[in-house]
Inverse folding.
């Protein structure tokens, strides 16, 4: 197994603030976040409900604009980009995996996987496609429609779709939230392999210590701030860290 990280950042946030609403109703969802997501690593983001995990992911992925602060993705400062340039960046440099798979029901698995490239009118790199399909164990499922696939297989198709365009970074929002534990283990194992074998950089939001155990590093958020991190986590160490944060007065 090769690890292709060189320790540099693939995405960076500096003093990131996101305020929703105004006046007394304003919610400070991010309250000065500094993070460096390391190239070629699987990073998990954990924290209680409402701590700002999704907001942070959306700001890092260019899906939402911060109120202040800077976001750099793959060397590009994105906070100042026009909508058009931002859309272009999301299409070409960023991959997404959602909890609900978001596959097109009328297309086969293969057509779903290559859809982002087809939309962007970019050629399919056959060798890379084959590698992704094999890494995700989808070889014998390519002609199936989503309804003919299990939840775990559908999420693996969604992972392949995110990986096939060779994005700089993949954002996965609760990727195993709808899966049973064995399908979760499958999908997380493949996400980790995409990092270790394809050199992909992946960030995932999760509530589950077992899922976080697949990461190289876990970041803990509370009240819109990064309050801790763990390298080379196991589920047990994640549980201990969460308990420690609670004892320290965090929710
Ligand atoms: N569009 C919005 N308008 C107003 N407030 C919002 C909006 N989106 C998020 N918030 C608020 O910002 C805070 C952070 O929300 P966020 O969804 O980022 O948290 P989270 O950690 O992802 O939560 P969960 O684990 O429940 O998904 C919460 O208080 C939430 O209510």
């Amino acid at each position: 197994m090769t690890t292709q990280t060189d320790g540099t950042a693939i995405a960076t946030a500096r003093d990131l603030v996101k305020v929703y609403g105004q006046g007394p109703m304003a919610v400070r969802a991010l309250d000065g976040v500094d993070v460096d997501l390391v190239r070629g690593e699987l990073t998990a983001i954990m924290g209680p409900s409402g701590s700002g995990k999704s907001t942070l992911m959306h700001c890092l992925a260019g899906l939402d604009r911060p109120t202040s602060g800077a976001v750099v993705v793959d060397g590009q400062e994105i906070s100042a980009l026009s909508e058009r340039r931002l859309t272009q960046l999301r299409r070409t440099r960023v991959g997404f995996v959602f909890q609900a798979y978001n596959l097109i029901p009328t297309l086969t698995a293969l057509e779903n996987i290559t859809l982002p490239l087809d939309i962007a009118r970019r050629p399919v790199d056959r060798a890379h496609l084959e590698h992704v399909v094999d890494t995700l164990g989808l070889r014998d499922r390519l002609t199936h429609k989503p309804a003919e696939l299990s939840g775990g297989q559908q999420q693996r198709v969604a992972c392949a779709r995110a990986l096939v365009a060779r994005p700089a970074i993949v954002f996965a929002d609760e990727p195993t939230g709808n899966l049973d534990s064995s399908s979760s283990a499958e999908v997380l194992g493949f996400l980790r392999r995409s990092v270790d074998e394809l050199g992909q950089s992946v960030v995932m939001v999760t509530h589950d210590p077992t899922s976080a155990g697949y990461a190289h590093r876990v970041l803990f958020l509370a009240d819109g701030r990064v309050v801790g991190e763990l390298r080379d986590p196991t589920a047990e160490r994640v549980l201990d860290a969460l308990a420690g944060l609670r004892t320290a007065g965090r929710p």
About this structure: Residues 39-63+80-247 form a domain with the Rossmann fold fold (CATH 3.40.50.300). DSSP finds eight helices and ten strands in the chain. The chain has one domain: 39-63+80-247.
